Amino acid sequence: MENASITTDVSRPVNAHDDEDDNGDDDKEAEMETAPPSDEPETKAPLSPTPTPTQRPWFVLPAIVLSQFAGTALWFAGNAVLDDLVDEWGLPESSLGVMTSSVQLGFIAGTLAFALYSVADRFLPTKVFLTCAVLGSVCNAIIPFLGWNVDETDNDNDANESSSSSSSSSSNLLLTGLIVLRFATGFFLAGIYPVGMKVAADHYQSGLGVALGWLVGALALGSSFPFLLRQIPQPWQALLWETSLIALLGGLTVGFIVPNGPYRKAGTKKFEPRALWTLFQNAPFRSAAFAYWGHMWELYAFWTWCPVVWEAYLEEERDNHNIDVPDFWSESMVTFFVIAIGAVGCVLGGYASARYGSATVAFTALATSGSLCLLSPALYLAPFALALTAYLLWGMAVVADSPQFSTLVAQTAPANNVGTALTIVNCIGFAITIGSIQLLGVPWSEKYLFLLLAPGPLFGLWSLRKLVFVPSRLENLAATSRSKGKATPLGGGEEESGKHNNS
Fold first, then answer.
1. 242-294 pLDDT, tens per residue?
2. How far is 436 from 415, CA to CA, in rounded Å?
3. CA–CA dist 135, 151 (Å, integer)
4. How far apart are the two ends of the chain, measured CA to CA in Å?
5. pTM
6. Rounded-to-integer distance, Cα 212 and Cα 216, Å
7. Do the beta carbons of residue 296 and residue 435 sit within 8 Å?
8. Pick from 138, 134, 91, 103: which is nearest to 241 by CA?
9. For the chain, is the Cβ count within 10 Å smaller at the N or the C terminus?
């Protein structure tokens, strides 16, 4: 049950009772005029209770970070076992793009539904996180049961003249079932990733950039985790069940251990489509959202196709150039490190934002990853050590800006629509990822593949430029937002606290 909102309205309209209040105020003013002056300094009561860091349990951020890591382990679990599915189920080689896009489409559908109905603002976000973690874990865990009779079907088909057509039909059914379950997993991830940021935003106002740096770092580490599990000699079914169990534990942690934050403000109880339009009337919010979408054009396509590019690179290095690359560095292991090191970039970027501001950190990271997109053909020709070092730097930069964009979005959105703002921006961002993931499936040399990602960072840098290079405009926009009561200050080293109402 939600607590009643504690608010102090300093600009309430006049009603029938205001005349009596005005008379009372006149009497008080008359008394004050005749009262002798006091030597004690005048003090003003705060408009609303302002939670201090000591009121926030110490375990809140670690619990949210670990739960975010656990929940997002579901994201690339299917990708990690794709080779086994292709071999055992006879799936086509093009299943990589199809399966990844299914998760993205599910995430888009989920974020759109959550945004339209303001789920993260109308309901307790911790319970939303729990529910979606449980359902996402179930969808991921039942994938192995789709092919429980594959071997029996194959044996029957061996004695049948139409075995080829029957096998093809069976593979199509398995692929369809896999797409449905991955779509459903993506749908419920919409209640884990952006809602996890909403839970953090409810606990942090000052230092939100640092908190979200840890959270998106957890996303990067969680997304890479299935590739690490892939290195363990075990059946592919066990990998899926392990990731489901981890995600379930993460949901239980947020649902039953993490309290709702003191800065949480309950949203509207009814569907208001105008709220979505109102969000984008705010210029700084619009700049942050557009820059985030440019970043998203690059991020997930880079993560998805990294093992493909590195498989081709390692094959050429070992076979054609006779370079002795250690067997330890398979494409899966390289992908794990490239994605996982993004967690380091997110955390370092979070601490840097406390000094330099979220906009500056996001701009720097986006410029770095965009430059590496343009240099990717040269990296394909570079020695192994240099190429690996550059990709690790790329892995740090490509996601380091994500929490800072989320910080800017959360801080420029109306206080009672922060969850909806984060969700709708994520929704559109992930819709963009489908285009870039599918585009990289063109029959083009892996050497030039990542050049197709460069337009995203360039567009993001252009959108973000005014928030970085025109600081006076940034301050004016923040002051205007505060005076209208629409948003908290933009990301930076000095963030105000206590502007949100409690609930």
1. 999 999 999 999 889 888 777 776 655 555 666 667 777 777 888 888 999 99
2. 33
3. 29
4. 11
5. 0.69
6. 6
7. no
8. 138
9. N
